[in-house]
Amino acid sequence: MPKAVMYSELFNSKRNVGRPILRYSDCMKKHFKAAAIDVQQWESTAINRTAWRAAVQAGSVAAEVAREADADAKRRRRHEQELQPLCHLLPAHYRPWSVGTVVDV
Questions:
Q1: What is the C-alpha to C-alpha distance for residues 26 and 32, in angstroms, rounded to an integer?
Q2: Angle of CA points 58, 22, 30, to nearest 5°
Q3: What's residue 64's pLDDT?
Q4: Residue 4 and residue 7: Cα distance in Å, rounded?
Q5: Could you give the number of structural domains in the chain?
Q6: Is 46 contained in some domain?
Q7: pLDDT band at 101 (very low <50, low <70, confident <90, very high)
Q8: Quick check: pTM over 0.70?
């Protein structure tokens, strides 16, 4: 069988742009990791309901604190970036203080 026939579906089909869609287990692993729950041992932890509830509550508090810290850091970086002067982006005829002078941009 020629290669063109075997791979013809790849040439004619459409693929979604970006990363592949996550499976349910991938999302659960991401949430367990954020909540500091061991991905390999979560089933044995979940058997004991009180231990599982304590792990989920403690993990959710830790995940929320980490999320808020990340948001604050991102907000701080964005605010610092907004405070930087943008004068160097203006054309020279909009900068009256630089008329007749050579400005390194």
A1: 10
A2: 20
A3: 94
A4: 5
A5: 1
A6: yes
A7: low
A8: no
